[in-house]
Structure formats: C-alpha cells, structure tokens
Amino acid sequence: MVKNELYFEDMSKIFVHTAQIHYYDTPVICSQALILGSNTIDFIGGDLTDHGVDDDLLFVPPLDRERHTGIVHDYAHVPENIEQHCTTPENMKEETPAEQTRSPGVLMVVEAESSPLAGRPPAEIVAAVERALLPFLTPVETVPAPHPDRPDALFVVVAAEGYVAVRASPVRGYLGFDVHLWHGLARQTGVRDALVAAAGSAASSSYRIVAGGMFGAGAWR
Predict the structure, then answer these.
(1) 173, 210, 147: which is closest to 10 by C-alpha?
(2) How far apart are CA 42 and CA 50, in angstroms?
(3) In terms of Cα–Cα distance, which of 74, 49, 46, 44 is closest to 62?
(4) pLDDT score of 149
(5) What interhelical angle do 122-133 and 188-199 show, nearest 10?
(6) Rounded Cα gap, residues 117 and 132, in angstroms
(7) What local confidence, expressed as pLDDT, does residue 113 receive?
(8) What is the per-residue DSSP string for 67-125?
(9) 4 pLDDT tier (thresholds 50, 70, 90)
(10) How far is CA 97 from the centre of its chain?
(11) What residues pair up with 175 in beta bridges, in sequence order?
C-alpha cells in the first residue's frame, strides 16, 4: 500500500514493513512524502531489481544500495503486526452501519507497453476497453477527450462502481489506465487483467493508491 502525506505512524501499526520516502533534491512548495507499507516486502534489505524501464520515460538511478535507501526518511519493522490480520474474537469485523459515514476508494494505475491496440484508431480502443470492462463494471457513459481525433486522445469510461481513464501513445505502443473504484474493490484485479489482455501487452505493471470514494452510491455497503 502507498499513501501520500504523513501516515507513517498510522501505517507502521498495520504493516510488518513501513517506509517513508522523501526526494530531497526536488524543488517543492511544501513537503510531500510517500508512505509504503507491506507485509512481505523488505524495503531496506530486499533484493534490488532492474525492471528495464525505458530511460526516455523515467529516470531510474543505478542499482546502488546506498542510493536506494537514501530517500528513506523513516523505517519501521514490526513482525507482530501480521497477527492483526488473523480473525479472532478480539478483532472481528465490525457490523455494517445503517448509514454511510465513510467513502473509501482505491485508484489502480495500470501501464501496458508494447501494445498493438495502442496503434489502432481511438474508436477501436474505446470499443475494446468497453468490452473488457463489461464482466466487471456497469458502464454508464464513455466521455471522449476534447480532441477525439488525436491519436493520443484521453477518454473516460464512467461506471456505477467508479471510472477508468485511458491514455494512449501510439508511437510508443503504450496504453495507460487509471482504474478508480469506490465499490466492488475486489474486482480491481480482474479489471486490470482484462485491460492488459485487451491491450495485447506482455509487459505491464500496476500499483494502487488509496483515494476517496463517492458518497451516495447505491451499493456503498
């Protein structure tokens, strides 16, 4: 899990491994930190992996342990936190409230490279994305980009459970998907896999960010 802002103390009470990172050499108006939490990944001592990221898209420094840990501002390792995820009489799930008091949401960013679909006309991309989403979401409307004739046009599929924003770069064979759900969060992995399959990509990646939801949704429970 990744959250922005200052959540280190809260997340270190939940996850086995928690790290707060900060990029010191980046000009900022105010401090912006990222908090990473995991029950399996050791952010300090884990193996470093070269993912083969294109240097034209993103600058990735060399695989150096000192540079890797240099952006870590705080770190916590609490093995006992894993016990909180076991169902016991002391931590049974709370009863569903009668009225909606919270509106959680999760944004999953999905990137598909070497995609043959990215080079197709925008109308074909829209149709392929809508077909991929049908088993998982209830589409309401597809909102086109302000300039739909551009090959790199952005469009958004709005559904009852959330929305999917799509970006295309035909030159690079790239499709990007922002999958923001506030209901049926368990479907997010299926949505990701269906979109990657529709893109025809064998080189994809994804990550999640905790975000806001939508009050008033019919199936908020």
Answers:
(1) 210
(2) 16
(3) 49
(4) 61
(5) 140
(6) 13
(7) 93
(8) HHHTTEEEEEE-GGGGGGGS--GGGPPPPPPSS----EEEEEEEEEES-GGGGS-HHHH
(9) confident
(10) 28
(11) 112, 168
pLDDT at 21 (0 to 100):
84
Which amino acid is located at 53 in the chain? V
For residue 155, give both structure tokens: 């469009």
Q: What is the pLDDT of residue 104?
A: 76
Which of 138, 116, 140, 111 has the alpha carbon at shortest distance from 128? 116
Other beta carbons less than 10 A from residue 49's beta carbon: 7
Q: Over range 134-162, report the average pLDDT.
A: 76
Report the alpha-carbon distance of residue 163 to residue 89 in Å, rounded: 37
Per-residue pLDDT tens for 55-93?
666 667 778 888 778 878 889 999 888 877 665 565 555
Distance CA 180, CA 168 (A): 18
Contact residues for 118 (Cβ-Cβ < 8 A; gap 6+): 112, 125, 168, 169, 170, 172, 173, 174, 175, 199
